[in-house]
Amino acid sequence: MPDVYNWQLGRNMSYRFQTGAQKRQFAAVFNINRCIACQTCTMACKSTWTFSPGQELMWWNNVETKPYGGYPQHWDAKILDLQEQANPGKQVWDPNKKDAKKAPYGTFEGKTIFETADGVNQQATGYIPTEDEWKAPNIFEDTATKYSKEGVTLPEHSGWFFYLQRICNHCTYPACVAACPRNAAYKREEDGIVLIDQQRCRGYRKCVEACPYKKSMYRPSTRTSEKCIGCYPRVEGTDPLTDGLPMETRCMTACIGKIRLQGVVNVGADGQWVEDRQNPLYYLVHVAKIALPLYPQFGTQPNVYYIPPRWVPRAHLEQMFGPGVQAAIDAYTNPSRETLAVLQLFRATQEIIFSYKIEQGPKTAELTIAGQKREIYNDTIIGYSSNGKEVVRVTVDEPLIERPDRFAMNTI
Amino acid sequence: MAEKDFESDDPYEFVGVRYPAEPGTDPDEIMARCFIEEYALMGMPRDRIMRMFASPAFNGTHSILQRRGVEFIRAIAEGVYGRPAAEESHA
After folding, report:
1. Touching check for A77 and chain B: CB below 8 Å?
2. What single DSSP character describes residue A287?
3. Are the beta carbons of A293 and A302 closer than 8 angstroms?
4. Considering the entire predicted model, what is its pTM?
5. Distance (Å, rounded) from C-alpha A68 to C-alpha A88?
6. A326 close to B (CB below 8 A)
7. Per-residue model confidence as pLDDT tens digits over A123-132
8. Which of B16, B21, B41 is closest, CB to CB, to A160?
9. Do B30 and A311 touch (CB under 8 A)?
10. Which domains does chain A have, with CATH numbers?
11. Interface of A with B in 345-374 (CB under 8 A)
12. Which of A41, A202, A344, B28 is the 20 to 30 Å CA partner of A149?
C-alpha cells in the first residue's frame, strides 16, 4: 500500500491510493461556540437532497448534542472502542514531537483505522450501524430528565454539553473510497469533493462500514449508498444566482448563527494545502490554528475543521480534536485583531470567499478578555471571490438588532 | 416529551445522563463569561448584555442570573468592561 503523509497526525501512514492528482480541496470551518442547534442547516440539506422515498432516515447534515448524542447513535464511541480494542492502551499522541507546518498538533503514536484493519476483509476498521441507530436523530438529547436521579432538566449548565455540526468531511484520505470494492466512491480532482457514482455502486455498504464519521448511508429504494455531495453544482459556480461564481453549500448559507465558513483551498502535489495566507480557511487552520479536525486520529485527514467550545472539559475535547485544543481555545478566546475580523466572514455571503483584505478602523473599546487587557478596533474585512470580485464587506462591530420581548416570548 | 415511562430496553431510548463539570470549576461563571466576552468582542455595549441576562426571553443567560443573582453577572461584566464611568465618578 502507498505511504502518504498525514499532517494532522504528523507522520506517514498507509493508504490504498497515492495522492498527487488533486488540484483543490473543499474545506470548511465550524465555530461550535456559536451553534444553537436550530437545525436550519439540517433542513436546508434535507429539503434539497434527501427528500425522496428511501431517504427518510438519511441526514447528510446533522447537528447532534455532545457528549451523549449521535447520528447514528454512539457512532464515535463505537469507533473509538474498536480502535482501542485493536491497539489497547496505545492510541496516544506525543504532543512534543511537533513541527509548525508538518506536525502542528504533535505526532499520533497510535494506529489509524487503515492500520488496524486487516486489509483483506476490511480496508478500514469500522462497522455497519443498525437501522435503529439511524432512526431517531436528536431524540431526547436536550431533555434528559428521567434517568438523572437528581431530576435535572437540561439545558442547564450544572452539567455541560455542546452541539456538533456534521457533514461529510470530504477527507483527503477517505475511508469510503479506500473501502469500495467497485471504485464507485471517488474523490474529484477539481475540488476534492467525495462522491459515489450511482451507476457503479451496487450497495455492498463497504463505504457505510468504513466511514468512521458514518456519512455514507444506504438507500434501500435504489439499493445503492449515498452521501453528502458537497453541493457541488454550487461549488462549481453553475447555480445561476451568482453568475458563475462559486457558491457555498446549502447548509453553510442557511446558517442563522453564522457559525460556518466554507471554501476551496489549493492543494500541492503532496496532497497538502498550499500556503495561501489570505485565504480565510488557510488562515484559520494553518496560521491562527484555532480550527481543528474532528477525530484526526482516525487518519482520514478530514477537511471540516472546528473551533472547539471553550466551556467544555479539555480532556473530552482532546480526545475529539487532538492535542491542539488548548492552544486553539486560547487563540479563539482572546483573538488577534486579524482573527476577530476573519470571524466576521462566517456566513456573511453566499459566494465562496477565496481571499480577504482588512482595512483598519478606529478603536472602539478597551476590554479585559480572558484576564488580559486589550483594545478593540472596528476594522473592516473585505472578501473576494475566485475572480477577484468583492463579494462581501463587514465590520468587526456587529450591528445589533433585538426583537422586542413581546415577540421573543411568542417564539415557542 | 413522552408521557409514558422510559424503558431501558427500548432501542430508541436515550441512554445518556448529564456530564458533571470538572471539580473546582464553576459552570455558571464559565458560561456567563463566555456570553459576555463573545458579545463584547462583537461590539455589544455593557447595558445590552446586562439586559440579555435580565430578560426572561433569553433563557440561557436569564437562568444564570436567576441562580446566581445580578451581582454575580455585574462582577463578570465589570471585569471585562471595567467599572462603569458613572460609578467611577462617584468613587
Report:
1. no
2. I
3. yes
4. 0.91
5. 23
6. no
7. 999 999 998 8
8. B21
9. yes
10. 3-336 (3.30.70.20)
11. 364-370
12. B28
